[in-house]
Amino acid sequence: MSGYRKSRRIALVTALTTLALTLAPATVNAGPHRAAPYDHQRCGNTSGRVLLTFDDWSYDDPDLTVEVGDYLRSRGIRAAFFLINEFASQYPGITETLRAQGHWVGNHTYSHRRLPDLPEADARAEIRDGLDSTLLRPPFGDYGDRETRIASELGYRMCTWTVDTLDWDGSGGSLPDAATVRARVREAPAADKRGGVVLGHLFTHFPEALPGIIDDLRDDGYGLCRNSGSTSRNIPMPLNC
Ligand SMILES: [Zn+2]
Q1: Which residues belong to any copy of the NodB homology domain (predicted)?
Q2: Please, which pLDDT band fits residue 37 given cuts at 50, 70 and 90?
Q3: How remote is the CA of residue 114 from the centroid of ligand 1, in Å?
């Protein structure tokens, strides 16, 4: 994007934000700006920057995951990976490497079943046998009070997303291509991106779309979570990334 278009776009966003703030009734929930209860969609991200997240597993090429992690690190970005432990537990080096690269690695359950459909003992086992961490991304983003309680008992906070790239949706006959995935992030509402969480998957065209997604976000004036060196199983709350 040219400097001219970029500055015009930033000016427009600023004007619209000012207008929205002017028009907002005083009683409206101030959302992430309030001294707020934990916001599961933002995973505790209070930084104002965008957190990119990568779910599931790279089935055809497990090493792609650490290549993505290395690329993100090279661009100064910390991301979060939510790996299915049925696979990740067979490749412990991948989690170790991602954390050494400065990324967070969270629990996405053991075998990616829809937790609310399971008897309580099975739902608990799916979480307990997931990748050891402090953030839980429930498969399909699907959970209720029971799952929140179990997760909390096992030391996890729920973490979903504010921007779904729909990169996983092959209902059109094939997965959306990289250009489509990139456009979905570019066109997502500003409020969902600033301090938000973007959902993508390791087995789709999301990794291929990544360079363009990062360029677009930066061109449009967004920051991305900063990479400041290695991480551990404990994902801080709040996320001041
Ligand atoms: Zn998943």
Answers
A1: 48-225
A2: confident
A3: 10
Question: 32 CA distance to ligand 1 centroid (A)?
Answer: 25
Is residue 38 within 8 A of residue 157, CB to CB? The reply is yes
Reply yes or no on domain 34-219 having CATH 3.90.226.10: no
Encode pLDDT of 147-195 as tens digits.
999 999 999 999 999 999 999 999 989 999 999 999 999 999 999 999 9
Which residues are within 8 A (CB) of 94 and not within 5 positions of it... i.e. 6 or more apart?
62, 63, 65, 66, 83, 88
**Strand-strand pairing, 157-158 and 135-136:** parallel
- Rounded distance, CA 96 to CA 100, Å? 6
Ligand 1: centre distance to CA 99 (Å): 20
Query: What is the predicted pLDDT for the residue at 35?
Result: 55
What is the DSSP annotation of 156-179?
Answer: -EE---SEE--TT--TTSSPPPHH
- The 3 state secondary structure assigned to 77-88 is ECCEEEECHHHH
SS3 content of the chain, % helix, strand, coil (to 5): 40, 15, 45
Give per-residue pLDDT as tens, 100-155.
999 999 999 999 999 999 999 999 999 999 999 999 999 999 999 999 999 999 99
> Is 89 exposed, middle or buried, given 0-12, 13-18 or 19+ CB atoms closer than 10 A?
middle
Q: Is 54 helix (H, G, I), strand (E, B) or coil?
A: strand
